[in-house]
Design brief:
11 helices, binds S-adenosylmethionine, 7 strands, 7-stranded mixed beta sheet, single chain, Rossmann fold, alpha/beta, globular
C-alpha cells in the first residue's frame, strides 16, 4: 500500500504556531486564519503539552532554522526557488521580489489551504503576487518531480533553480531519503544541471540515550500523534557519506552570524554558547550534482 504522507501534515500547524510566537513577518496572520476561517480545513496536533506557553531563554529550533535558511537565500539574485513541503511557512511571502520566482509546494490538501490563506493575506496587505505560484508536489513521486521540472522549464527566464526545504527528511526512513535524493538528481540532470538543493535537515543526528533533550522537545508527542518515527543519521559523517553516495557534492554553511544577531535582538547573551551549539543542528547544507 502507498504511504499516506498527509498524516505528517499536522506538523505544519505545529511549525506555524511556533513561528507565530516569534516576531516573524506574516506568521501571526497565518495562525489567526488557521484558527478562524480555515479551522475546519487543517488538521492540528492533538497535544502541544506546554510547548506553546513556555518562556524559553533559547532560540526555538523552528525559528533558528527558518532564519538560517533565509540567510542562505538572502543574497541570491535572479533565482527560481522551489520550496518542497513548505507547510504553512511564510517564507514565500517574505521573498516576493522582482527577480525571484517562487514555487511553493506541499501535499494536495495542505497546499490548497495555504493558497487560500495566502490569497487573503496578499489581498489585505496589498502585495504583488505575480511571481508566486502554488503546486501540489510529493518529491518521492517521479511524476511530481517532472511536473515541477516542466514548470521550471517554462517559467525560468534563465533563473538558477534553488530547491529548498526544512523539516522534511527526518520524517522519511532511509529508503525514502534515498528516493528523495534520486529524484532531486533526476530533476537536476533533466531540467537544471546547475541547480542547488539547500536543506536544514541533515545536521541533526540521533541523540544518544543519555543526552539532554532540546528546550522545545515535543518530538515524542509528535511521533505518537502522527504515527511516524523520526529518522536521523547517527553522525554528520554518515550523512555526508549518504549525500556523496547519492551522486552529489556538498558544503555546510555556517549560521553563527545570523544566530548571533538573533541572540542580540532577543537579549539572550547569557545562553549564547549553548544556543550556538544547538544552532549547529539546523545549519544549511548546500548540495549540487558531483
Ligand atoms: C514539519 S512540517 C514542515 C513544514 C514547513 N517546511 C515548515 O517549516 O513550517 C512537514 C511538512 O512536510 C509535508 N510532507 C510530508 N511528507 C511529504 C511528502 N511526501 N511530500 C511533500 N510534502 C510532505 C507535510 O505536509 C508538512 O507540511
Amino acid at each position: 500500500m502507498k504511504e499516506d504522507y498527509s498524516k505528517i501534515s499536522p506538523t505544519a500547524v505545529f511549525c506555524a504556531r511556533m513561528r507565530a510566537k516569534q516576531d516573524i513577518p506574516f506568521a501571526k496572520e497565518i495562525v489567526e486564519l488557521i484558527d478562524t476561517k480555515f479551522k475546519d480545513s487543517v488538521e492540528d496536533l492533538p497535544d502541544y503539552g506546554d510547548t506553546l506557553t513556555s518562556k524559553s531563554d533559547f532560540i526555538p529550533f523552528i525559528e533558528g532554522r527558518y532564519y538560517s535558511l533565509n540567510d542562505a537565500l538572502k543574497n541570491m539574485k535572479n533565482v527560481f526557488i522551489l520550496e518542497l513541503a513548505s507547510g504553512l511557512s511564510p517564507r514565500s511571502l517574505n521573498f516576493l521580489k522582482k527577480d525571484v520566482i517562487y514555487l511553493d509546494t506541499d501535499l494536495k490538501n495542505l497546499i490548497e489551504v495555504k493558497k487560500k490563506i495566502f490569497q487573503e493575506i496578499i489581498k489585505k496587505s496589498n502585495l504583488d503576487r505575480s511571481n508566486l505560484f502554488f503546486m501540489e508536489a510529493n518529491p518521492l513521486e517521479e511524476k511530481d518531480i517532472d511536473s515541477v521540472g516542466l514548470f521550471y522549464q517554462n517559467q525560468r527566464e534563465n533563473k538558477q533553480l534553488i530547491v529548498i526545504h526544512e523539516g522534511l527528511l527526518m520524517y522519511f526512513n532511509r529508503e525514502e531519503k534515498k528516493k528523495f535524493m534520486e529524484n532531486i538528481k533526476k530533476l537536476f540532470e533533466k531540467y537544471a544541471p546547475n541547480g542547488l538543493l539547500m536543506t536544514t535537515d541533515l545536521s541533526r543526528t540521533t541523540k544518544k540515550e543519555n543526552s539532554k533533550k532540546g528546550q522545545e522537545n515535543i518530538r515524542d508527542k509528535i511521533a505518537t500523534a502522527i504515527k511516524n518515527d523520526f529518522d536521523y543519521f547517527d553522525s554528520e559523517e554518515e550523512a555526508k557519506q549518504f549525500v556523496s553516495e547519492c551522486g552529489f557534492k556538498l558544503e555546510i554553511l555556517a549560521n553563527k552570524k545570523v544566530i548571533e544577531e538573533l541572540i542580540a535582538k532577543k537579549g539572550l547573551e547569557k545562553n549564547k554558547v549553548q544556543i550556538l551549539e544547538t544552532a549547529k543542528e539546523y545549519r544549511v547544507w548546500k548540495i549540487r550534482l558531483a
